[in-house]
Design a protein that fits this description.
Elements (H helix, E strand, L loop, with lengths): L1 H34 L1 H12 E6 L6 E2 L5 E13 L6 H19 L4 H13 L5 E2 L7 H7 L8 H4 L2 E10 L7 H4 L1 E2 L5 E2 H5 L1 H5 L3 E8 L2 E5 L12 E4 L3 H18 L3 E8 L5 E10 L2 E3 L19 H11 L8 E3 L4 E4 L2 E4 L8 E3 H6 L3 H12 L3 H10 L30 H6 L8 H12 L4 E2 L4 E6 L2 E5 L4 E3 L5 H17 L13 E11 L2 E14 L6 E8 L8 H4 L1 H14 L23 E3 H11 L2 E3 L7 E7 L2 E6 L15 H10 L3 E5 L5 E4 L12 E6 L1
Parallel strand pairs: 2-10, 26-28, 29-31
Antiparallel strand pairs: 1-8, 2-3, 3-4, 3-5, 6-7, 8-9, 10-19, 11-12, 11-24, 12-13, 14-17, 15-16, 18-21, 19-20, 22-23, 23-24, 25-27, 27-28, 30-31
């Protein structure tokens, strides 16, 4: 009985406690709802509404002819406030809207979209994102005409949230040079180096936190963003394309690890092409800027012999290119090591000119010993005077710092002087090597390479970048004369004679440097060719690096020089100012009239008038013509070159044909030997679509 009574008492006490708690909760809810309601609503609103950045539109990156290389395109996410539209408009348009959404996104049924929007309206939800997929501007314009949406943001409730994406019209062309920048403001290339100019200044506006996202609140307090500036580069799209294609083909053919090409104008220092390709599974991509950065800073090998020869000629002007050097049988003992030449059996006794042309390591080493063995510091001082020990102050971030040894360094050995003389025990980037070669081409004036010409806001130039002289005269005119003769000799009868041609002269130097792995030199090579053209009046300088090529021929002349030649041919073909003027010749006999078949109207009239051949130009206003014989004279007929169509180059010289086809971005394969084009694989007038290759046959 006592137990039963105890249980009843406990139950009653528990019941009373629950009743008290329920009353307390009811009292608190009532107080919050009615007495403190306004207070909590105010706090909730303050927490829901907050300022959020409105991102500025990023500036464009242009090529030298103002083709867009990188731009920001607007994309949109479609959101909706279903509570805004009036009942009449909503009910009349919801079925059509649901149908259009279903057909556009093609992932859900009409019923799904209808149900989702109606449920959100009934629940009072003021923000729903209709789909995660982003749409472009044309899609946005189309959607703006749909039922309910056509009422606009304030009366229809549609919200197009702008999202900008970086777009490169030329795809992967110059991808690493253009670069990128991530959310942490880290990156590479022009996007990173000029981020402060490209990024602009973000604005801000009020946004309200709503289930499903943030809805903008336009109350007049928003700060508009200041859009970024545009930058105009020095890159020539056509030469860039040729550089990348030529480099890619050679890398694939030699299975090399990476390669880079830089081409710039001699007088201005403007970089016209800069290609960097690294090996990945299945091919090559622009994964790093080897031309400028630390990974491309290597022992240059024989291309550095130009600096050594310049130092020796400056230190001892009496050295003549005709002086003899005995290189022996190809092996030479220096201290406790041996140096060898690439030619089996050695070169024997050769001239200083031939030492450079044949790239004799022993010949350069002996000259270095004769000139600097008692004062190696003088050699290092010359290198620093030439600017090889300093950075160029290049416009892009990440320029590698050169490494030049000093006699006071701990790692200066008895063999260091001669090793440095042939391009070892020192490190320099391809861009720094090119700047030095460019100085030789530029009559001794060393200038700073540039890749950005202008920073602009629309058509207004905010900042211009001009040629900056780093060294007024790297060496004497007498030394320059000797160096240029040696560089021309390398191509005419030396290690790069495979790229010699009769149309224009190339001057340059090959390089083949053994690589170091685990502290030891191995039989893997970094090959290079650096030079300029035309040699008698330099317009462009260029360097090609191909690292670790595989195969039988792994020397700079076999691997890197052909890439240089392909790019040089393209630049020469499209730049008539570099062409030598045609020499008119007198025809002694007039029994037959020569028929040039086709060519440039100006060139043909000049020649024919000079040699006294009657010609008729009446009614011809085209730059290019075909020639028809007419009794004792020649008649010109227009040969129109229509943009986007295959030109008619039959009868033209190879030089003219390459120029015209190159302007249409066609890749040309030449077959046969002769002076003029006899056949072409693509018929004249054919629209150039995906077909980018044409074969021409000479006869």
């Amino acid at each position: 009985m006592n137990i039963k009574k105890s249980i009843v008492v406990r139950v009653r006490v528990a019941f009373l406690v629950v009743c008290v708690l329920a009353c307390a909760i009811f009292y608190k809810l009532t107080r919050i709802q009615f007495s403190d309601g306004e207070k909590w609503k105010k706090i909730s609103k303050e927490r829901r509404i907050h300022y959020q950045p409105v991102f500025a539109t990023r500036g464009n990156i242009f090529s030298d002819n103002e083709s867009i290389m990188a731009t920001s395109l607007p994309f949109y996410r479609v959101a909706f406030d279903p509570t805004i539209a009036k009942a009449e408009s909503f009910n009349a348009g919801i079925d059509s809207l649901a149908m259009l959404l279903s057909r556009f996104y093609k992932d859900r049924s009409e019923d799904y979209y209808r149900r989702r929007i109606k449920n959100a309206r009934h629940a009072g939800r003021r923000y729903i994102r209709l789909h995660g997929r982003q749409i472009n501007y044309q899609d946005k314009k189309m959607m703006s005409q749909w039922p309910i949406f056509r009422e606009g943001k304030n009366r229809g409730g549609v919200i197009f949230e702008k999202v900008e994406k970086r777009f490169k019209p030329f795809g992967i062309l110059a991808e690493r040079t253009i670069g990128f920048i991530n959310e942490d403001k880290n990156g590479a290339g022009l996007e990173f180096s000029f981020n402060n100019d490209l990024a602009g200044t973000d604005g801000e506006a009020l946004f309200e936190r709503i289930a499903g996202g943030n809805k903008p609140v336009y109350d007049g307090t928003e700060v508009k963003p200041l859009h970024g500036y545009d930058i105009k580069t020095t890159i020539d799209i056509n030469l860039q394309d040729v550089a990348e294609n030529a480099l890619y083909k050679q890398l694939m053919a030699t299975n090399a690890e990476y390669g880079c090409v830089i081409m710039m104008e001699v007088k201005t220092g403007e970089i016209k092409a800069i290609a960097n390709l690294g090996k990945v599974k299945g091919g090559y991509i622009e994964d790093y800027n080897y031309a400028v950065g630390n990974q491309g800073r290597t022992e240059p090998g024989s291309t550095f012999k130009l600096a050594s020869m310049m130092a020796m000629l400056e230190h001892n002007p009496t050295i003549s290119l005709a002086d003899s050097i005995d290189t022996g049988n190809g092996r030479y003992r220096i201290k406790n090591t041996y140096m060898s030449d690439s030619h089996h059996g050695g070169f024997g006794k050769i001239t200083v000119q031939q030492v450079f042309e044949k790239s004799s390591n022993i010949g350069v080493a002996k000259l270095m010993e004769q000139t600097f063995s008692t004062n190696p510091q003088a050699y290092v001082d010359y290198l620093n005077k030439f600017g090889l020990g300093s950075t160029l102050g290049f416009q892009m971030e990440g320029e590698a710092r050169p490494y030049i040894k000093n006699p006071q360094d701990r790692n200066w050995y008895g063999t260091t002087l001669t090793s440095m003389g042939i391009g070892y025990e020192t490190k320099i980037s391809p861009l720094q090597t090119l700047a030095f070669y460019n100085a030789v081409a530029n009559n001794g004036v060393k200038i700073q390479p540039i890749i950005v010409k202008e920073i602009r806001k629309a058509d207004q130039v905010i900042q211009s970048f001009h040629t900056r002289v780093l060294n007024e005269k790297v060496c004497s005119d007498e030394t320059l004369k000797k160096l240029r003769a040696m560089l021309e000799g390398v191509v005419e009868q030396g290690t790069a004679r495979n790229i010699r041609n009769k149309d224009y002269k190339i001057a340059g130097k090959t390089g083949t440097a053994r690589k170091v792995k685990n502290g030891r030199y191995v039989r893997e090579y970094s090959t290079s060719f650096a030079g300029y053209f035309p040699a008698d009046n330099p317009k462009y300088s260029c360097i090609v690096i191909i690292d670790s090529p595989k195969g039988v021929n792994v020397y700079g002349g076999d691997v890197a020089a052909p890439v240089f030649k392909e790019l040089a041919d393209k630049a020469y073909a499209r730049d008539l100012a570099m062409h030598q003027p045609l020499q008119a010749r007198v025809i002694p006999e007039r029994n037959s009239i020569p028929n040039p078949e086709a060519g440039s109207l100006d060139d043909l009239t000049l020649i024919l008038n000079k040699i006294g051949i009657s010609n008729h130009t009446a009614g011809v206003d085209e730059e290019w013509v075909q020639v028809k014989p007419m009794q004792r004279s020649l008649k010109f007929e227009s040969n129109a070159m229509l943009k986007g169509q295959v030109p008619d180059v039959k009868g033209m010289t190879l030089r003219d044909a390459l120029f015209i086809l190159g302007n249409e971005h066609l890749q040309v394969e030449v077959q046969g030997v002769g002076k003029r084009v006899q056949k072409q694989s693509l018929e004249p007038g054919t629209v150039i679509n995906e077909e980018k290759r044409i074969t021409i046959v000479l006869s």
